[in-house]
Amino acid sequence: xxxxxxxxxxxxxxxxxxxxxxxxxxxxxxxxxxxxxxxxxxxxxxxxxxxxxxxxxxxxxxxxxxxxxxxxxxxxxxxxxxxxxxxxxxxxxxxxxxxxxxxxxxxxxxxxxxxxxxxxxxxxxxxxxxxxxxxxxxxxxxxxxxxxxxxxxxxxxxxxxxxxxxxxxxxxxxxxxxxxxxxxxxxxxxxxxxxxxxxxxxxxxxxxxxxxxxxxxxxxxxxxxxxxxxxxxxxxxxxxxxxxxxxxxxxxxxxxxxxxxxxxxxxxxxxxxxxxxxxxxxxxxxxxxxxxxxxx
Length: 296
What we know:
Strand content: under 5%
């Protein structure tokens, strides 16, 4: 004990307390969990970061998907297996739907463009709407989409699958090739057809993404007519992927399972279902001015 009546231990505690908070937090093992917890709290999204994230993520997804082994023989075996399984279930209706609609040029051409374009347009539109109108739910709902897309890559790698239009020994009509649909993967000689892995059909992200859009719109939109459109969007997408011979209906089931995984990841990360989070979050407090905190 010193002359002032303060013990050595108390002096050490006073010195420690006098250290800047940043120094203590850097040495504190509990600081990292606190930083991790902050990431799990909804916050206001930043436009530049979201645009960059979406562009980079989709680029990585496309590269990995198209780099998946294009094992044609195995993809054909898997297609035959799925076709036979659906036949045993009495649900091998793709060929009948494909032939019934392929002859109606006025209908099948718009369906081809629907397949080639709305997959991206509607999904980006829903993301933009969430960003603007539901910023508090944006991050968690976006995580659902990203986790869904990420796990789909597992299917592309380990279950190569020929779409119906490429099945050997079948007479499916490749409607996009017949009508030379612009931007289609079926049009030979185009850049899209050359760089895209056409044997990555399982799971169907047309269904995974459209169902994500439909659920999000139905859950968060206010006008009844918009909720109805959101509900019908994945249903109509299922008709499109079957009519154009791009997918089996079991590919759609695979897309649904991937989406269920995405919702689970988001629920575990944020602790609540994405649509039950607050619609808006308060702006983040500005960082304190260092000159004010440490006057000279």
